[in-house]
Amino acid sequence: MSQYSSKWIKVSEPAPHVLLVELARAPVNAFNVEFWVAYGKLFDSLVEDGYDVRAVVLTSAFPKFFTAGLDLNDASSLGSSGSDTSVDTARASLATRKLLLAFQQAIGAPERCPFPVIAALHGHVIGLGLDMIGICDIRYAASDAAFAIKEVDIGLAPDIGSLAYLPKITGNQSLMRELTYTARTFSAAEAEKLGLLSKVVPGGREEVVKEALALAKFIASKSPIAVSGSKHLITHARDHSVPENLAYTGAWNAAALMTNDIRDLLTARAQKKQPVFPPLAIQTKLPTHSKL
Q: Its family (predicted)?
């Protein structure tokens, strides 16, 4: 997996079709521009290359920190052109907006993947960390995890994903607003109460990564057509009405039901074997055109 690892991101394949992605920018995984660009590129490259991955576990290499959030020493990540008096305010704002949209696009890359991304959280999960995990499909946390939607404490509203995702994926609007407005630290138990987590694992990094990998391996054993389709349709349902989603699902499954995965699954079950499914992506080459 060396082709997908980069300076601050380690990628390994601990089980067939399961990738472990470890954030590794010492000492606390603070994100500068280079880091978040590499993060987005990783997920987009896996999709573009058609790599046969069926589940990803996202975690940190450092036991005490998942991420400390944005690297405040990286001035360009905050749109420093606003302090340049030679650039008028409108143009500086456009430049900042362009940067923020690129930032959102990079951090949002896991949602564009046809495979589930499972966040295995531990230690401190601060600021940008909440933006990142809200985009993931499933969130497990170690009991030692501590969370903070920290942006208010540096004078801005969260702008990379927290306010877009958390109100839709959590079940307690009052608590979510309280945590955002106060920027106070909250525990894994409170995050579970909020509806942010599906499981709290006793212990720390080692324990939660083990649990997340076990889940990833189980998901990877399922039909990739079924799993990827389910992810796509759940995301569609989040952003559309029930009638719209039902109509869209009808159109989607009219094609998806043609898969051989159903036949292979039923055959394997009858033979009391584990089904083996082909990769989701088909490797193709762009057609070449002869000269006229």
A: Belongs to the enoyl-CoA hydratase/isomerase family.
